[in-house]
Specification:
The chain contains 2 helices and 4 strands, in the order E-E-H-E-E-H. The protein is of the alpha+beta class.
Length: 98
């Protein structure tokens, strides 16, 4: 499974891109990441309704590829579906360690 997160916006406007491949992660981290994707029901998420632009808020574009499946969701801080928050939190923690 490959996951790409692109974060834009925020106070400084500095973009962030993270790419994670479960094939290169330690097995416990790969299992945890797969579990978070499943718990978020990621492949069935749809973009939440638009909320007017929020100054200094982040927007995330998350793409998950697994086998022949690929799904992309773009969501802002203020419209983040609850099931997606743990997955995004894990990914942002991973980004901060790189």
């Amino acid at each position: 499974m490959q996951i790409t997160v692109e974060r834009s916006g925020g106070y400084t406007g500095i973009p962030l891109t993270l790419q994670v491949d479960t094939a290169t992660l330690p097995s416990d981290q790969a299992a945890q990441l797969r579990q978070l994707v499943e718990a978020a029901d990621f492949f069935h998420l749809t973009a939440p309704p638009s909320i007017s632009a929020q100054p200094d808020r982040f927007e995330y574009e998350i793409t998950v590829r697994e086998g022949d499946r690929q799904h992309r969701v773009t969501v802002g801080d203020m419209a983040m579906p609850e099931p997606l928050k743990p997955l995004l939190g894990w990914l942002m923690t991973m980004a901060s360690q790189q």
